[in-house]
Design brief:
This protein has 143 residues and is α+β, with helices and mostly antiparallel strands. 27% of the residues lie in helices and 36% in strands. It has one domain (5-141): Thiol Ester Dehydrase, Chain A.
Length: 143
């Protein structure tokens, strides 16, 4: 689907437009580190993470942020329809060596502007039953 003016007009505030869960493993973190060049040891060594006061290894913030917007991209069908994307990092996503971590995303319509043909999509992002991104919002436009 590509969001057009007609489908934008059919939306209502509160509508859920996408939901998805992502499983992160330590392998995911290593792959992301290689792709991003972010080899900070808190992302792969428990001893270092704990030495700096963390509960353990945590996912890269930009990895979490990138995964979180993906359900909206899939719903839109065109990443070029995203006008703005912002989040606040509120809690780290700890990635257990054995069980990994699950990041869950629910994308809901938070605001509609028919005149500008735009919508604000609010993201609820949780891991381990805690919100990990606050004020996560994606502004999208109709094609």
């Amino acid at each position: 689907m590509s969001l057009d003016a007609a489908s934008l007009g059919a939306l209502a505030v509160g509508d859920v437009v996408a939901e998805r869960s992502f499983t992160l493993t330590r392998d995911s973190l290593v792959r992301y580190a290689g792709a991003s060049g972010d080899f900070n040891t808190i992302h792969y060594r428990d001893d270092i993470a704990k030495a700096v006061g963390l509960d353990g290894v945590l996912a890269h913030g930009m990895l979490t942020m990138g995964l979180t917007v993906q359900p909206v991209v899939d719903w839109l069908g065109d990443p070029g329809l995203i006008v703005d994307y912002q989040v606040r990092f509120t809690r780290p996503v700890y990635v257990d060596a054995d069980t990994g971590a699950v990041v869950s995303v629910t994308a809901k319509v938070g605001q509609l502007d028919a005149e500008a043909a735009t919508a604000r999509i609010d993201l609820v992002v949780t891991s381990n039953d805690q919100t990990v991104l606050g004020k996560a919002q994606v502004r999208v436009r109709a094609a």
